[in-house]
Specification:
homodimer; 200 residues; alpha/beta; Helicase, Ruva Protein, domain 3; 4-stranded parallel sheet; two-stranded antiparallel sheet; 7 helices; 42% helix
Chain lengths: 200, 200
C-alpha cells in the first residue's frame, strides 16, 4: 500500500478518514479528488475552511455558531425571547427553523451528558443556560434533545436544575411520526403514542 | 436556513458538498465537525491538504501520483518493466498491488475516453504510454480498465493504437467473481463466464 501511494497522499487520506462518516476507502477517493482539483477550487476549499474556523464562534447568548457577537436569532426582536428551546447541536436549530412554526429562541448545549464518553454536565453549555434563565425573563424551557438515552438523561438533568427556579420545563412530544406506518412502528414509540393519546 | 447558519459555515458546507460522494446533509455535518476541531487537528488537516497538493505530482514514467520524480514502482529494478498494466486511476494500482501477484509496472490514464463528458483521447495520458512503448522494451500491455462502456471503449482504442506497433495487448478476464453466487450473476457476466470457459 505505502509503496503504491505517495506519503503525502496517505497522510491526506488519513486526515479525511478522521472526519465523521468517512471510511478509509472514501477518504482515499477524496484524497485523489483533491489531487485533481484546479488551483482555484483547492484555494476556495482552504479559504472556506480557514474562514469558518476564524470567523465563526459561539453566540454569546444561545451558543449557536455565528460570525457576529450575537446571532441573528438572538438579536431578532420579533422572536419570543421568553421561550428557550434547548438543543444538542446547531444543526438541530436548522431543523426547527425549517418547520417555520417556532418563534422562540434557542440554546445549544454542544453535546449531551454521557459519562461513558467523558461528557459530564460541566462540559456542556449549561451554566450559560442558567445565566440566561436567571438574568432574563424566561417563561418556558423546551427540552428538545433526541429521544435517546443521553438525550433523555440530559433533559431530566436540566429539568431538575430548572424546576426549583420556577421555570416551566417541557419536553418534545413522542409518538408516531406523521406519514409513518403503524405496523412498522417499534414498540417503545407505539407505547409512547398510546400513553400520550389525545382526545379528538 | 441562512438565518440559522453563519455565512462562513454555509460556504464551508458548500465546499464539502462539492467533494465526490458527499451530499448537502453530510457536508453540513462535516462543517459543524470542523468548528469543533482542536486547533491542532484543524492545522493537521490543512497541512495535509496543502502538502499533498504541493508535493505530489504525476510520475514522469507511469503518471501515478508520487512525491518523487519517478515513483517507487517505476524505480523498482525487481519489477518486470516489459509488462505494462494500463489503468484508469491511481487507486486501481492500489487494488492490483493488494493481490501481491502482479510484478510488472503500470500506466495511469487519469480517466477514460468519454466524448459525452468531453473526455477525448488527447485529455488522457496516452501519448506518454506511446512514448514508453516506443522508447523502452515492452512485451505486453494489459488493458485493465473497468468493464464499463467507457472502459471497453478506451481498451479498444488503445489496442488499435498499439497492435500496429507489434505490441501484444491483452484484456483482463471477465467472468464470475470468486465467492459469487451463480444465481445472482447478471446475464452479461454469466455469458462472459461461459464464453471464456477453460478446460479443467
Amino acid at each position: 500500500m505505502a509503496e503504491a501511494n505517495a506519503l503525502p497522499l496517505v497522510v491526506l487520506s488519513e486526515q479525511f478518514a478522521k472526519l465523521p462518516g468517512i471510511g478509509m476507502k472514501s477518504a482515499q477517493r477524496l484524497a485523489y479528488h483533491v489531487m485533481g482539483m484546479s488551483d482555484e477550487d483547492a484555494n476556495a476549499f482552504i479559504s472556506a475552511f480557514s474562514a469558518a474556523r476564524k470567523k465563526v464562534h459561539a453566540c454569546r447568548v444561545c451558543q449557536n455558531f455565528t460570525d457576529r457577537e450575537i446571532c441573528p436569532i438572538c438579536s431578532d426582536v420579533r422572536r419570543d425571547h421568553t421561550v428557550i428551546c434547548v438543543v444538542e447541536s446547531p444543526k438541530d436549530i436548522t431543523a426547527f427553523e425549517r418547520t417555520k412554526e417556532y418563534h422562540g429562541v434557542y440554546h445549544v448545549l454542544h453535546g449531551l451528558i454521557s459519562p461513558i464518553d467523558g461528557v459530564t454536565p460541566d462540559k456542556l453549555r449549561i451554566k450559560e443556560l442558567l445565566y440566561r434563565v436567571n438574568n432574563s425573563e424566561v417563561s418556558e424551557v423546551i427540552m428538545a434533545t433526541n429521544p435517546t438515552v443521553e438525550g433523555e438523561a440530559t433533559a431530566m438533568y436540566l429539568s431538575k436544575l430548572l424546576k426549583p427556579l420556577g421555570i416551566k420545563t417541557t419536553r418534545l412530544a413522542f409518538g408516531l411520526p406523521i406519514g409513518g406506518i403503524l405496523e412498522y412502528a417499534d414498540e417503545v414509540t407505539l407505547y409512547k403514542a398510546l400513553e400520550n393519546r389525545n382526545e379528538i
